[in-house]
Specification:
Elements lengths: L2 H4 L4 E3 L9 E3 L8 H6 L19 H15 L4 H23 L4 H27 L3 H9 L8 H5 L2 H16 L34 E9 L2 E8 L5 H12 L5 E11 L2 E3 L3 H13 L1 H9 L6 E10 L2 E9 L6 H18 L4 E4 L12 H6 L2 E10 L1 H6 L5 H18 L5 E2 L3 H12 L6 H4 L2 E7 L5 E10 L11 H10 L11 H27 L2 H8 L5
Parallel strand pairs: 11-12
Antiparallel strand pairs: 1-2, 3-4, 5-8, 5-10, 6-8, 6-9, 7-8, 10-13, 12-13
Helix pairs in contact: 6-8, 9-19, 11-12, 15-19, 16-19
Length: 540
């Protein structure tokens, strides 16, 4: 077998005269070396009369070979290549310096402003996109899952329209087209609701609001708005307020402090006890960390209850005119971080361990107090008891003992030694934008009635845990802030922090006492059913 038959596709050659590089000479004849490579049909000195005149290469292949040769003849030498490489290296170094160069404050601000502007433009484009759609088209996006219903306010930038479309969405899900027909949603300031006190808004519930007028408290006449659906409640409370106002009601704040009770776990009971002793000895340093979180929060007490290797810490602090749950939670978190620095083996299980106690009945609130601890008392002349309340002092005193004291004891009640304190508390809470669920502990009350030496009626209400504020929560809503303004406690006190919220607590306690006096009188006189049938039943 010949070499020609063995390698029919190409041949290689070295042209030492042209360069030191290997030059591929594509041919389908044989391998060429040395002079043959140079003088062959593709070499520098190829001639027509030579042996390699005849070839089977196509014109296209020869043209490619010629172009390759030209490129190689134009290849720069190594010195030029080194110069070029040096220039490239310099450019790369400059780029690297620019990358590692720290931007100036002005450049950062300009960059942030540019990003902010771009984001704003994107939002405006989106807003324009949705504003051009019909309500039905937006609803289709929500129903298909392409737009979440809880994002409607943010995407549409039209609060009332967002509420309207959400109502349509829920009505479609419920399968009742008229499900929201009688739930109003128009003409409401949703800007004060969105991101503050309610989510997935579909409207608002109008509650009837009545006023208990001319209650004389601490030498001042106050009017108390109450939101309720219970007929006879406001009329009854008004009757009690009228009787109390003959001599007036006196009130006093015994204590003012919101509480938060985290639960922690130590390796053993001995370490839990050590923590309790350490907190007693290092109260000032803990208070410094606690107080640093707010201009109002001021730590007044830390109580520690140990159960095995667990410890329950009850922080108590003044919170100004705010009810204060968010304020104290933030402060407790900071204080717990500081305590953990000194007790690294301490595990914080929860910032709330039910030792607070929030929105649940508890003996600790009844005994230690939470929020505002208030006492109100008054003397009602026996003539007023008989003529206005239609009963006697003796009957009221006996009923108070049998019902409020003995009856509540038989029931095992905690803080329930009263007739219906929660009725008044809840109605005022709803009207003034308080946390309605906190009526649980805020309604803790003991109502006492005694006969004085002069034969008049002495009545008192002691409420150790009224949790209210005149800022925060729902107090900023138009209707609720209006009710606070009626009482004279809208917003924060401009003279003394906490004064407005304390006055609201005193007003609540005094109004509770008015309600207690009237209901107990109705029960003693046997007129409760008659009154409710007259005022609490719709006449057909």
């Amino acid at each position: 077998m010949s070499v020609r038959e063995f390698t029919p596709l190409f041949s290689w050659g070295f042209s030492l005269r042209r360069s030191l590089w290997l030059i591929p000479l594509f041919n389908n004849n044989i391998f060429s070396f040395g002079n043959s490579a140079v003088n062959g049909p593709y070499g520098r000195n190829r001639t027509v009369g030579k042996r390699y005149k005849s070839t089977t290469s196509t014109p296209q292949q020869r043209e490619v070979h010629v172009q390759v040769g030209r490129k190689r003849r134009n290849t720069p030498d190594l010195s030029d290549l080194a110069t070029d490489m040096k220039k490239v290296e310099e450019v790369l170094q400059q780029e690297k310096k620019q990358e590692t160069k720290k931007p100036t404050v002005e450049e950062i601000l300009l960059s942030q402003e540019k990003i902010k502007k771009e984001l704003e433009e994107m939002k405006n484009e989106k807003k324009t996109k949705y504003s051009e759609m019909s309500d039905g088209q937006v609803l289709d996006l929500v129903l298909s899952g392409k737009l979440q219903h809880y994002k409607l306010e943010a995407e549409l930038q039209d609060m009332e329209r967002a509420v309207k479309i959400r109502r349509m969405y829920f009505a479609a899900n419920i399968g009742q087209e008229n499900a929201f027909k009688n739930l109003p949603y128009e003409n409401f300031d949703y800007q004060k609701v969105y991101g503050v006190c309610c989510e997935n808004v579909v409207g608002y519930v109008p509650l009837p609001v009545g006023v208990v007028a001319n209650l004389k408290l601490d030498g001042e006449t106050v009017h108390v708005p109450m939101a309720t659906c219970e007929g006879c409640l406001i009329a009854s409370t008004q009757r009690g307020a009228k009787a109390l106002s003959v001599n007036g009601v006196n009130s006093i704040i015994l204590a003012d402090g919101m509480t938060r009770g985290p639960v922690i776990q130590m390796p053993n009971a001995k370490r839990s006890a050590a923590l309790k002793l350490w907190l007693a000895e290092n109260f000032e340093s803990v208070a410094r960390e606690f107080n640093s979180t707010s201009r109002f929060a001021r730590l007044s007490d830390i109580k520690v209850a140990v159960a095995g290797r667990k410890a329950f810490l009850r922080f108590k602090c003044f919170t100004g005119d705010a009810m204060g749950m968010n304020m104290i939670t933030k402060a407790v978190t900071k204080a717990m971080d500081y305590i953990k620095e000194n007790f690294p083996d301490m595990e914080i299980i929860s910032v709330s361990g039910n030792y607070c106690t929030d929105k649940k009945p508890s003996a600790v609130n009844w005994l230690e107090g939470r929020g505002k601890s208030v006492v109100c008392d008054a003397v009602v002349p026996k003539e007023v008891v008989e003529k206005q309340l239609k009963t006697t002092v003796d009957a009221l005193v006996k009923l108070s003992t049998d019902k409020n004291l003995v009856g509540s004891a038989m029931a095992g009640s905690i803080g329930g030694m009263n007739a219906h304190a929660s009725n008044i508390v809840t109605a005022i809470f709803l009207a003034t934008g308080q946390d309605a669920a906190q009526n649980v502990e805020s309604s803790n009350c003991i109502t006492l009635m005694e006969k004085t030496k002069e034969g008049d009626l002495y009545i008192s209400c002691t409420m150790p845990s009224i949790e209210v504020g005149t800022v925060g929560g729902g107090t900023h809503l138009n209707a609720q802030s209006s009710c606070l303004e009626i009482i004279g406690v809208k917003g924060p006190s401009q003279t003394k922090p906490g004064q407005n919220s304390q006055k609201l607590a005193r007003v609540i306690c005094a109004t509770v006492m008015a309600g207690e006096l009237s209901l107990m009188s109705a029960l003693a006189a046997g007129s409760l059913v008659e009154s409710h049938m007259r005022l609490n039943r719709k006449k057909e």
